[in-house]
Amino acid sequence: MEEGRNMTVIYVPKGKAREYSPLALNLYLQCSHKCKYCYAPSAMQRKRENYFNIPSPRKNVLVNLEKEIKKKRPKEQVLLSFIGDVYCETEDENKTTTKALEMLLENKAPVAILTKGGYRCLKDIELFKKFGDHIQLGATLTFLDEAKSFEWEPGAASPNERIETLKILHDENIKTFVSLEPVIEPAETLKLIEKTLEVDCVDIYKIGKINNYGGIDKNIDWTEFLTKCLSILRPSGKQIYIKHDLRLAAPSVKLYGNEVLPDEHNAE
Asked: How far is the CA of 103 from the CAs of 61, 100, 150, in angstroms?
């Protein structure tokens, strides 16, 4: 992930990452969640044992952020974050996250946060509310089965905690989304869709697949999976976005325009 021209802390994601957000901000360069499938250690050319730690804030990140925002206020959505999780367990108890959000709010920058930290993000719920329509809070969901979740994401919040957190945020009129990716066991992802619809805690469903991890993707019928997802989600009226790699893996599945175009903050 290269940093975009004329920006150092807030940057333009490149390649596949661009699908997620037009801009991004990484506040911590390690993570305590220890997800088996995590791409960050490889992307950063680090050994996994040097990446999966309780992180301290990125050096001078708030000072540099303040300088950048004063020079050029971000008008497109800023995602927190591609490296690490701004609500994982951190040495500063996520205070850098709070301060960065305060700066972004003051400068009216639209924000998206994707986290597996569960309740930990709720410390900033009053701050989220101040963003109004200019913030989205999301959770990555991979398994409904708690034992499987712990096996694959041992440092992250349980799936039930993530879903309960989404419900709390949703009930406070904060826009919520789920990233159903990676899809390791399609049956688990389908259960997560049904569970979150039952709870009514998600506004936007973003569905992907799994790539290049132990050959798992080669043994999944992605056409069948996507067809089942849509059969459950379409009647709900929820906003749906099918990610690029899943569209390529299931080309025969016909999608509506609003299922292939990213949301308003991600428009090309």
From this structure: 12, 5, 34
In angstroms, the CA 260 to CA 107 distance is 30
Q: How confident is the model at residue 39 (pLDDT cuts 50, 70, 90)?
A: confident
Rounded to an integer, what distance in angstroms lies between the CA atom of residue 62 and that of residue 59? 8
Cα gap 125→147, rounded to integer Å: 29
Closest by CA position to 90, among listed 152, 36, 41, 28: 28
Q: Which fold has domain 116-261?
A: pyruvate-formate lyase- activating enzyme (3.80.30)
Across 106-125, average pLDDT: 97
For 173, other C-beta atoms within 10 Å of its C-beta total: 10
Q: C-alpha angle with apex 170: 142 to 117, nearest 5 degrees?
A: 45
Q: Indicate the domain borders of the chain.
A: 1-112, 116-261
pLDDT of 181-222, one tens digit each? Answer: 999 999 999 999 999 999 999 999 999 999 989 999 999 999
The DSSP H or E segment spanning 193 is helix 186-199
- The residues pairing with 139 across neighbouring beta strands, listed in sequence order, are 115, 178
pTM attached to this predicted model = 0.92
- The pLDDT of residue 95 is above 90: yes
Grouping H, G, I as helix, E, B as strand and the rest as coil, residue 205 is: strand
